[in-house]
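hey can u check if this looks right to u? its 457 residues, i copy pasted from the old doc so theres a chance i mangled smth
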Amino acid sequence: MAETENTRLLALEVLVEVEKQNIFAKDALHKLLYQKQFLSKQDRAFITRLVEGTTEYQTRLDYVINLYSKTKVNKCKPLIRCVLRMGVYQMLYMDSVPNGVACNECVKLAKKKGFHNLTGFVNGVLRSVERNIDSIPYPKREDGLAVYLSVQYSIPQWLVERFLQWYEEEQVIQILEASLQATGITIRVNDNKISRQELAAKLEEQGMDVEDGYYSEDALHVSKINYVNRIPGFRQGEFFIQDESSMLLYPIANIETERKAGQVLHILDLCAAPGGKCTHFAQKLGNTAYIEARDVSERKTALIKENRERLGLSNMEEKVWDALILDESKKEWADLVIADLPCSGFGILSHKNDIKYHISEQQLLELSNLQKTILTNAVSYVKPGGILVFSTCTINPEENRDNVQWALSHLPLEKEPIEELVPENLRSFVDEEMLQLLPGVCKCDGFFIAKFRKKVE
């Protein structure tokens, strides 16, 4: 029992760190698992499931706790709040854990962390949930669509209301369902080192399930994975982990058709970490292009460098630069600027399941304005007649379509047609030459792409 208790204690410490420091659960979890490498595979899996599940279902868990607690969740001390959430998550979603065990272990955790006077409160709330586990009165659709969807899919109600403003109800439900679905990974094959067929065969030999991509000839979908960096071919640079949605930037940019005989194309990626898009261009274009990949910190550019070296690419380099600051030395230098900008990330909720708790309505406005600043700088780097590709991993029209319209009216840009460059099975998602992919509706992450040409004076 001591070992089981210890794994719960470690999970609790991660959740409390997330709660107190307002950091992402995956970052805190990664740090813990790196420090505790001696843990068994089973213990690591248990901690991961408990942390990620408690985080992902926080809205639903809080709803249940508030039904049976006189003190509402947001009034509890952070550690007690995390203990209650952990306990309710185990009872609702972990069939391998008996409900009584979940209750007892959470009471022990509260005592172990010095909250002796609150063990009765923790026990009372969790036992009440346990007694009512099969008859919890969740909201019904007739109670209001937004509150029903919020609890049903464990997402803040204000965000559900925004989604319903932006999209039809059926699409919103598909998006919310996708946000809770665990998937495998998508990889981009490095065809400089191995063919897609050869890599697929290699992975299948190791017991993994492999499917061809739906939209990109460079993609494979892989499931039944233990550790990504132990997948055969990872360290050898035979692939890069990247969703198909962002792989579409390369064919949509179509930059090779802009190249004149003997010319080396100059490409600038402004917010490049961890390097998926810039390494895709470097891989495909070879010595016909030179790519400068930028990001805001040494940590981020080191990650790009690590991936570049692993993939064996020599036609690009990294530079630390804040995209919010104009670099006079690069004015009108680039044939192509890739502006994949910081955003709310609502298109990747299935990968980063606590983004929904780290964003506010005010921050949506701030992000939209930040993007305008970066786009203004980005245009300065494009040669007259050159290409600017703007993308985000969100589904928020204020960050996407609205910023395209703003750019067309404030910057020396004209929209470039992209529909014929988009895979045929995605063309229905192109509207006014802008591509908006929706998770759950498409077989990829949510993603937005627009393409501009800089006007020639």
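The first strand starts at residue 185 and ends at 189.
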